[in-house]
Structure formats: C-alpha cells, structure tokens
Amino acid sequence: MTLRHYLQFKDFVRDDFDYLFERARVIKEKFKRYEPHHVLFDRTLVMIFEKASTRTRLSFEAGFKQLGGSPIYLNTQDSQLGRGEPIEDSAEVISRMSDIVMIRTFGQEIVDRFAAHSRVPVINGLTNEYHPCQVLADIFTFIEHKGSIQGKTVTWVGDANNMCNTWLQASEILDFQVRVSSPEGYGIKPEFMAGNTRVSLFADPMEAARGAHLVTTDVWTSMGFEEENAARMKAFADWRVDDEMMAIADKDAIFMHCLPAHRGEEVTSSVLDGPQSVAWEEAENRLHAQKALMEFLLLGRQ
Ligand code: CP
Ligand code: NVA
C-alpha cells in the first residue's frame, strides 16, 4: 500500500472523505452493538503529545484498542523529545517500532518533518496551524444531523486558529461556505486565506451567524498562546456565541465546539447545554471517525 499521512485536511480528496464518513458510520454502529472490530490486531500506535489533551488521547488510545491494537503514549517530559533529540531521528526510530503514529505538537513543520522521515502513516493530532482530526469528526457529526455539508453555511466565531484554518481547507474540498468573524488582529492570516473561494469575512459576528446551518467557535486563547491571554480577554469580549446569536442562525442550526470550552467566554452555558448543541456527540465522534481514519491509513478501503 502507498504510504499516506493525514497532516492537514487537504491531504485527502473529497472521495476519501466520502468513504471515511460512511466507514465511521459503520464502525460506530458496530461499536454501539458491542460487535468486535479487531481489524488492527497486533498493530502498534505511538501517540506523541507535546501539548495537553483529554479527548485526543482518549479517542486514539481507546479507539486503537477497540481496533485490536496496542497504543503507546509518549510525551515531551519523559521522552528524549524533551531533551533535544532531533525530530527526524525520533521519526526514524519510532516508525521502525510501530505501525502508525499520531502527534500533537506546536508548529506544523514538526509534523511535516516527522512524516518526511517516517516509514509509517503519521496523523496530526493538533498543531498551532491545524486540527484535521477534529474537523473530520465535526463534519461526520454535521452529516449525522443535517445530511451532506455541500452547499451549506458554517459560521466560525472568534479566533482564526488551528480549527478555523482547518474549516477553511474543508470548505474548498467539500464545497460549502464558511463565514468567519474575528476581532481585529485575530483574523485569518494571509497564508491560510490564499485562494479560498468559499470564505467570507464579517466584522459583526451576529451578521456572520445570520441564516447559518452550523455555528461553531473555540477558546479565545489556544494552547501555546497563553502569554497573550489578558489581551485576548479584552479583544474577544463581543465574540461570544449566545442564545441571541443562535436565534439569528437558521431555525434548525446546530452548535459545535471542539472542547474544552470556557463557559461564559466564547460560549454561554445555555448554548453549550442547549437543544441546538451537538458538542457532546461531536466529542464522541472523534472516536469513531479516527477509528475509520486509522483503518483507512493501514488497510485501505474495506
Ligand atoms: N478537542 C480536542 O482536541 O480536545 P483535547 O485537547 O482534550 O484533546
Ligand atoms: N484551538 C484549541 C483547540 C484545543 C482542542 C487549541 O489549540 O488549544
């Protein structure tokens, strides 16, 4: 099989995603029926974490076990990665002892360099620039609730961060509109905007949300940007998803948040816990979507 990685959403084409969304549905149904799906028996996943995680670690670790394989957790603090071993050397070694690797780290160039020296598929479990596993699960969740995302409108409220950049890539590949509203100074950087024909920018987050099928947001301060927290608290004060904003969206609009959420900052509790929120199913779907992804990278289409 040709070696493929999932480092950015745009590493796959529309047909791959159509397959993955359908496969995630099948794998989820089997899981709900307690049917074993041990297609990766005897395989090993190495998970490398240079940033904190609850959902990503749990969904990859539980998911790989449910596929019959053995996950191994490495972090910066207690591996040689934290003591300056070059990422290229780490990739050479780790990929000789495992079948697939997931990395959560800072710069995208770190996962790119790891993949360039890896003998096995590499998955981006979040970088400063992208979070492709989350948007995979999010679009799977959207399809479960509302059918195809093609032609629909997704509104991003807040920081133009790794999640926003990934939604931008997804909009081009899966053909939907993205409206983005961010405070001045926290908008989409030119390199993530380049050539995107599906995005429109709004100064007013309420206008961005008008008629949207999905309203989504994320924390004001992402991991790695903590020193900017005080300035961000001021700048983002008007970029909060609340009941008024959900009311201006399409009457059947849904709300997503990749989590963890800061209630009262980017989203009110009444929206996060309200009837339009699918955030908890969205979190669960990380498990099913990533099982489909790992099966696909190791075994191809089933
Ligand atoms: N959404 C997400 O990736 O959560 P964690 O940081 O808990 O992994
Ligand atoms: N944008 C957030 C997502 C966390 C899952 C961060 O990078 O911290």
Quick structural summary:
The chain is α/β, with parallel strands linked by helices. 41% of the residues lie in helices and 14% in strands.
Question: What do you see in this structure?
Answer:
It is a single chain. This protein is α/β, with parallel strands linked by helices and 302 residues long. The protein has helices at 14-32, 55-66, 87-94, 108-116, 132-146, 162-174, 190-193, 205-209, 229-235, 243-248, 269-272, 279-299; strands at 44-49, 70-75, 100-104, 122-124, 153-157, 177-181, 199-201, 214-217, 254-257. Helices cover 41% and strands 14% of the residues. Helix 3 crosses helix 4 (108-116). The longest helix has 21 residues, at 279-299. The site of norvaline (NVA) has 9 residues, from helix 6.
Topology (elements, then pairings):
Layout: H1 14-32, E1 44-49, H2 55-66, E2 70-75, H3 87-94, E3 100-104, H4 108-116, E4 122-124, H5 132-146, E5 153-157, H6 162-174, E6 177-181, H7 190-193, E7 199-201, H8 205-209, E8 214-217, H9 229-235, H10 243-248, E9 254-257, H11 269-272, H12 279-299
Bound molecules: phosphoric acid mono(formamide)ester and norvaline.
